[in-house]
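User: Fold this; tokens only.

Assistant: Input:
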Amino acid sequence: QLVFRNDEFVQHGADHVMVELRTGGYIEVNGMHDAQDLQPPLEGFFKGTWGCTDYKPYFWESSELYCDHKYTVPCQFYFEGCSGPQLTTNLGKRTLQLAEFMS
């Protein structure tokens, strides 16, 4: 989970955006009501740079929303593999790419 907030105004420190990179094949975004001006560029980053699409719920899923917006990532977006006793993943790389975009 990554939490982004503008500490320039400490009295509004509770306003934040949280992005959850889920290795299950999607990304969840919360807190967009606090940063509506961020939504277009963030959506452009997810869809344009990372190739994500809007999440389409399966028919058995409830209509209950657990996040402000959910994206489906392309196949092989999260590299996970096993090589002997070592596990490898690119989750750290994806986290840094998002942090660089948000900075």
